[in-house]
Amino acid sequence: MMLPGDSGKAGPQHLSRIMAAEDNGTVNAIELLYARSVISRRHRTPHQILTFAALVENRAYEKHVEVRWRGEEGDWQTLPARYVATVGENREIWQAEARFKLTEAASLPGNVHFALRCEVGGQEFWANNDGADFLVEADAGVLLGP
Fold first, then answer.
1. Cβ(23)–Cβ(15) under 8 Å?
2. Beta carbons of 53 and 75 less than 8 angstroms apart
3. What is the pLDDT of residues 48-94, one digit of tens each?
4. C-alpha distances out from residue 90 to 6, 64, 70, 110, 120, Å
5. 20 phi, psi to nearest 5 deg
6. Disulfide check for 128: which of 7, 43, 94, 115 has CB 3.0–4.6 Å away?
7. Helix (H) or strand (E) holding 21
8. Burial class of residue 70 in the structure, from the number of CB atoms within 10 Å of its CB (0-12 exposed, 13-18 middle, 19+ buried)
9. Percent of the chain with pLDDT over 90
């Protein structure tokens, strides 16, 4: 799921940041583009949608990209990301999404702490807010990466 108005490709605001990073030689193996947390009350049952987008350096064709996250219950989860598009010379956008429905047995994730992980060529790379993890609050809308 893309941001409203997205066509499946990076928007102008994301592309300008991507191109500037490449021009400055400050390309990281994985970076946060955005995270989104939306709580909807449609159809009478509240549900929460979490969306994460990462900018990944294309160091090799074979790679594994995922989001490690935990909601207010505190248990860490792993959410695999999927390839979305190539941007710039050597960058890719990857995205992960999860949907949760409020039930008697399960609450919504609420505020979410998370980090992005990429494994490529036997190496592991993290985007984790300098070790502090990123935070997107429940129903906060969109959190843009640094």
1. no
2. no
3. 999 999 999 999 999 999 999 999 999 999 999 999 999 988 999 99
4. 21, 16, 31, 35, 14
5. -65, -40
6. 115
7. helix 12-24
8. middle
9. 66
Count the alpha carbons within 13 Å of 10 in the hemisphere toward its beta carbon.
23
Q: How confident is the model at residue 141 (pLDDT cuts 50, 70, 90)?
A: confident
What are residue 24's phi and psi, to 5 degrees?
Answer: -85, -5
Residue 120: what residue type?
V
Residue 48: its pLDDT value, please? 95
- Supply the DSSP string of 62-115, one letter for each residue: -EEEEEEEE-TT--EEEEE-EEEEEETTTEEEEEEEEEEE--SS-----SEEEE
Which range has the worst mean pLDDT, 17-21, 30-34, 107-111, 128-132?
17-21
What is the distance between the alpha carbons of residues 94 and 81, in angstroms, rounded to a whole number?
A: 6
Rounded Cα distance, 120 and 68, in Å: 17
Backbone φ/ψ region at 74: left (φ over 0), alpha (ψ -120 to 50), beta: left
